Amino acid sequence: MLRRFGIVAAVALCVGAASTVSAEDGAAAFQKRQDVMKQLGRPFYLGVGKAARGLTPLGPDTVEAAERVASLAKSLDPMLFPPGSDVSPSKVKPEIFTQKERISELSDAVRKAADNLVVAVKSGDKSAISTAYAATNDACNACHKDFRKSDD
Known about the structure:
The protein contains 5 helices and no strands.
């Protein structure tokens, strides 16, 4: 009985240690997450967003930007949010570390919306692009609403 308790305690310690990261690893995870979000945001807001709002003409650069958004959206998953990566200046809420299934759902929604955005941009239909852009933006904001601290 005592041996079994020792094994259970050792496993619990290992699992607990594996579920958090060191401060250095947390900072690195935050930096990676921030880089992914910035890389995704630039083509989304500047490449596709400006075209969707009629500020720049549609063209091959718009298609490339939409494809880049869809490609980067594939890297969105719970692994970008390891416990301990809520280091300053991260705006992540602590709830994110316990809701991997919700993160997966939200990430899937962003990927699907980004794939639809590519189709819309390739069509050249300004109305479809505007609709797909708004849907992708809404999918991104759904995660931010649930798991990102406000700027106030």
